[in-house]
Amino acid sequence: MMTIHPYQPSRFEEFDDFVAYSNNGTIFHTQRFLSYHPDGKFDFHALMFYEDSKLLAVLPAALREGGISLESPIGSSYGGIVLAPMPYKKHEQIVDALLEYCAEKGFQKIYLTPAPFFYQREQMQNIDYALALRGFDYDRHYISHIIEHGQNPQFLSTFNATARNYVRQFNKNQDLTIEFTTHTDAYYEIYPILVENKAKHNAHPTHSLDEMVKLQAQFPQNMQLVIARLNGKAIAASWIMDCNAQVTLCFYNMMLYDFEQFHPMYGIMNAIVEYSRGRGASFVDIGVSQDTKHDNPMTPSYPLIDFKEKFGAKGMLRSTFRKIL
């Protein structure tokens, strides 16, 4: 019999251990990650799905709209139901248990935004089908771009000619270096660049400087900065995360445009793909490619997509499931 238990802090290790060994979990699904938010910022309402005493799935989530909407994720990039490998029928049972639970609690809406399927150890869409079968539709789609490098030591050959040329120019310039670092001072150094870049698009960083430093301290083995330096000066950077064994994520990319002629982002992207391959991952996720200035949030940013495609990146959907109860 499938039962649901609301998450309690006493189940912290059980929850996060399950995510670590699941088929589709990421650091964004863990209670450890979500705990960086101050108490009371969100009305968290995570769920744990059991068959008898065996944990089969977890759902990091929170309540919004006065407690009538169950949404996942809140306070992180990816959410959705985190699953152990299991037969298809159990996916239906999990969805049925979720719908029954939400009806009993008086929830009126459910929104789920899972990580794209390439984050899975074993790629499957059983849960997507079970959700659709039970009446979930799509609230929205975003286009996200990934570089699939696998274990190809010649991954540079998958970049287009322009990108390959810029990478070689960067690497030949002895005044330019790439640094991987977790030091707090580096975050203070690069954060003004990030703020300046976001301002160009009438946006703000998702994280404050203090939040980035806090997350780095919480995940010293999973997060770091990749910085391009010209004679020691930081001219570009990327904040990367080892989201799980399959995927390395570029969460922020930033650059001082006065130094664009040195092509620092090309040097950084080449270094990130080499790093990701070296740790045994298969993909670099470069994030969504939306035009944040447009009224329609699904509108793609064509210049951003053009830039990403120079590295052989392909578009993948990041979709949000919706159920109105």
Helices and strands in order:
Layout: E1 2-6, H1 12-21, H2 31-34, E2 43-44, E3 47-51, E4 54-59, E5 62-64, E6 69-72, E7 82-83, H3 88-105, E8 109-112, H4 126-133, E9 137-148, H5 161-172, E10 176-181, H6 184-199, H7 209-218, E11 223-230, E12 233-242, E13 247-255, H8 264-278, E14 283-288, H9 302-309, E15 314-324
Parallel strand pairs: 6-8, 13-14
Antiparallel strand pairs: 1-3, 2-5, 3-4, 4-7, 5-6, 8-15, 9-14, 9-15, 10-11, 11-12, 12-13
Alpha-beta classification: alpha+beta
Topology pattern, helix = H, strand = E: EHHEEEEEEHEHEHEHHEEEHEHE
State which percent range the strand residues make up: 25-35%
How many domain regions? 2
Provide the CATH top-level class of the largest domain. Answer: Alpha Beta
